[in-house]
């Protein structure tokens, strides 16, 4: 049975653990790691059937078949290269880290050299399948518009740097407009989806991103417009935010769970 190790025991890590625990995913939950040991112990104690070990990152990387990063962009920078050097397959949730060209090329090279797979779930958006298909011919433009309630944008470096008072925003307000390469740095915990879209489509510089704070919203809304040789498509998802972490949408955790099932299944559906 596939041995899974999870780094980052917050909302997404917790949902993956529960899906293994209740049999939605047929794999072994072998080890957990987090910057806070108490979070690992609390999560492990909440499970009914699985009893994963609490491990230091280096030990986890040596012990499992598949490493799931559900922690932060910093974790991707430091942990994913080590995991690939150890010959492990890796699922990455904090995809924004791959805007760094040097890191991206290093990870892709290490995956190839060590015969490992790197998985990037669709996350909180719909339409990665369409971008993947469209990219077999020329794509001319990709735009992501993300709207979140102000509470879902707290702590973003862009908000802090510009001194934006989120609690004073009274109507829909455009906070950011620019390439995905800048968006994932300005909002590292809000638009990782922009990175996944960039990887699937036309890259970080040509993918355009708009981030809007809207106090009238209770959901995280992502719209994607793609034009290319195939024609044009538009997708829109209205995501329920996680009650534990309002920055993150429930769909992002479900997409990681579905990707795990896809890895384990002999049948591959969709592009
Ligand atoms: N691809 C996508 O579509 C999406 C991606 N994401 C990203 O996925 C990641 C997980 O999201 P979510 O579960 O909601 O986040 P949470 O904040 O709920 O959980 C992350 C956990 O990982 C821990 N952590 C952070 N950095 C490290 C590290 N270097 N080593 C070990 N543990 C670490 C955090 O600890 P502490 O709190 O102490 O920092 C926290 O316990 C985030 O980076 C998020 O931005 C989220 C939504 C969609
Ligand atoms: O969960 C979401 O709505 C999107 C998100 O936070 C991200 O892409 O980082």
UniProtKB/TrEMBL annotation:
One Pfam short name: Asp_DH_C
The protein's enzyme class: oxidoreductase
Keyword field contains NADP: yes
E.C. number(s) listed in UniProt: 1.4.1.21
Reaction catalysis annotation: L-aspartate + NAD(+) + H2O = oxaloacetate + NH4(+) + NADH + H(+); L-aspartate + NADP(+) + H2O = oxaloacetate + NH4(+) + NADPH + H(+)
Domain called Aspartate dehydrogenase: residue spans: 170-257
Entry binding sites for NAD(+): 124, 192
Gene3D superfamilies: Dihydrodipicolinate Reductase, domain 2, NAD(P)-binding Rossmann-like Domain
InterPro entries per UniProt: Asp/hSer_DH_NAD-bd (IPR005106), Asp_DH (IPR002811), Asp_DH_arc (IPR022487), Asp_DH_prok (IPR020626), L-Asp_DH (IPR011182), NAD(P)-bd_dom_sf (IPR036291)
Catalytic site positions: 222
Keywords in alphabetical order: NAD, NADP, Oxidoreductase, Pyridine nucleotide biosynthesis
Domain spans labelled Aspartate/homoserine dehydrogenase NAD-binding: 8-121
Coiled-coil regions, chain positions: none
Pathway: Cofactor biosynthesis; NAD(+) biosynthesis; iminoaspartate from L-aspartate (dehydrogenase route): step 1/1
Keyword Nuclease on entry: no
GO molecular function: aspartate dehydrogenase [NAD(P)+] activity
Protein task: Specifically catalyzes the NAD or NADP-dependent dehydrogenation of L-aspartate to iminoaspartate.
Family: Belongs to the L-aspartate dehydrogenase family.
Further remark: The iminoaspartate product is unstable in aqueous solution and can decompose to oxaloacetate and ammonia.
Name this protein carries in UniProt: L-aspartate dehydrogenase
The species this protein was found in: Methanosarcina baikalica
């Amino acid at each position: 049975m596939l041995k899974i190790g999870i780094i980052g025991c917050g909302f997404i890590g917790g949902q993956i653990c529960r899906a293994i625990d209740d049999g939605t995913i047929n794999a072994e939950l072998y080890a957990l790691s987090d910057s806070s040991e108490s979070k690992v112990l609390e999560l492990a104690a909440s499970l009914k059937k699985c009893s994963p070990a609490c491990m230091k990152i280096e030990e986890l990387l040596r012990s499992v078949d598949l490493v799931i990063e559900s922690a932060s962009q910093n974790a991707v920078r430091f942990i994913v290269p080590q995991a690939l050097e150890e010959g492990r397959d890796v699922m990455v949730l904090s995809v924004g880290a791959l805007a760094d060209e040097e890191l991206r090329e290093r990870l892709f090279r290490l995956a190839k050299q060590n015969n490992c797979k790197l998985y990037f779930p669709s996350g909180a958006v719909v339409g990665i399948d369409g971008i993947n298909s469209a990219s077999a011919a020329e794509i001319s433009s990709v735009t992501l518009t993300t709207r979140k309630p102000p509470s879902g944008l707290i702590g973003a470096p862009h908000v802090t740097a510009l001194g934006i008072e989120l609690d004073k925003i009274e109507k829909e307000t455009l906070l950011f407009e620019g390439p995905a390469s800048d968006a994932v740095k300005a909002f590292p915990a809000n638009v990782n989806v922009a990175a996944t879209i960039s990887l699937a489509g036309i890259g970080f510089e040509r993918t355009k991103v708009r981030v809007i704070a809207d106090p009238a919203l209770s959901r995280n809304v992502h719209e994607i417009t793609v034009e290319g040789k195939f024609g044009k498509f538009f997708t829109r998802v209205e995501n329920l935010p996680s009650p534990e972490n309002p920055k993150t949408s429930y769909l992002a955790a479900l997409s990681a769970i579905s990707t795990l099932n896809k890895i384990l299944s002999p049948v591959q559906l969709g592009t």
